[in-house]
Design goal:
- Two copies of one chain form a homodimer.
- By secondary structure, chain A is mainly alpha-helical.
- Chain A contains seven helices and three strands.
- The first copy, chain A, has a three-stranded antiparallel beta sheet.
- In chain A, strand 2 and strand 3 form a beta hairpin.
- The first copy, chain A, is elongated, with a radius of gyration of 21 Å.
- The interface between A and B is large, with 63 and 63 residues.
- Chain A binds a DNA duplex (30 and 30 nucleotides) through helix 4 and helix 5.
Chain lengths: 172, 172
DNA sequence: CACAGTTACCTCAGTGCTAAGGAATTCGGG
DNA sequence: CCCGAATTCCTTAGCACTGAGGTAACTGTG
């Protein structure tokens, strides 16, 4: 039996304690999970954006460039493919591509096979930028996990995998 | 040794596999955590908003009403207090209060002690609405956790507590 | 008691997203 | 082969937020 230190009360503990006083009839224990999930997400998001900003990017632009890069040669995808990967609406992708195209990081060309479709491709500048930003991004992610041991990381991943599946995150 | 089923490959597994093919020199394992964190947050957010919408609310409005409610009698807070609790800018709180005040769910009055300050209070309608919405909200949260056993929930909470603390979420 | 600095809230322009819908193109049943 | 349905991408209005900055009120030091 290892003696873990008693966790220091955090923001979420205080919220739960307040509800316990005001509405002792309700079981607010799920807030222990979802309150921290929201806080963690926002802190992670802010931290990642700091790294992106060092490369003149934001999360939306990085997402598009990274999706094209990891798709492998010939580094081409349709706006619909990018939309599904990013889980945003088509209008959002149009705007993201407008910005990236204006900066010369991607090109948009008409598809030969289907006149309705477009092909989005990384330019040399786009390749160079994502190749620069990606190692820094991963370093930031590694740093944010430094406080967890291997068992905690594995358990965290598996627990989130279950929740995402339960919530229909992989439905067709 | 319990035989766990091999997890089905999900969206994040595919992303990690793509990077493994395109950039085998990089350790992209942190994406197992942060990719799922992002997906989970968005799915949870969408699910919670569904419940809020059933009561004519969104996450921002619910947050303000719930913060006032759990503060206990006399159910009054300043915009600054709400701002710190919600982790948004003062401009966002002003707009949230504009909306809630227009709907008659909160009142904004000048403080007697400090002429710069305002006191935001729940109206009877505001009390009634949050009292209606809160049980449904908690039921939704309970439902989203149904797939986890007690050990998983506890481990998830503690792991997120550590990460939030590491990221400075409880700084001063 | 004067006044510079601080605090509390609001205002406003800009941003990126969604939801709804439009135009061009392709598909597929009769 | 034709034409309604489906698909693909773009357009637009509206929304909630941020960041910068403004106004009013308070504080404390000399």
């Amino acid at each position: 039996m290892v003696a873990y230190p008693e966790p220091v009360a955090d923001h979420v503990d205080r919220i739960v304690a307040q509800w316990g006083a005001e509405r002792p009839d309700l079981d607010v224990s799920p807030m222990e999970v979802f309150g921290r999930l929201k806080r963690l997400y926002r802190l992670v998001d802010a931290e990642l954006n700091r790294t992106f900003a060092e490369h003149g990017l934001d999360a939306a632009s990085f997402d598009v460039l990274a999706t094209l890069k990891r798709s492998g040669p010939p580094y081409r995808l349709t706006p619909t493919g990018l939309m599904q990967s990013a889980m945003v609406t088509s209008g959002a992708i149009t705007q993201r591509l407008d910005r990236l195209e204006a900066r010369g990081l991607v090109t948009r060309t008409r598809s030969d096979q289907d006149g309705r479709s477009r092909e989005v491709a990384l330019t040399p500048d786009g390749h160079a930028l994502i190749d620069q930003a990606l190692p820094d991004h991963l370093a930031t992610e590694h740093r944010m996990l430094a406080g967890l041991d291997e068992a905690q990381r594995t358990a965290l991943i598996e627990t989130m995998r279950v929740m995402v599946a339960d919530l229909g995150g992989e439905a067709e």
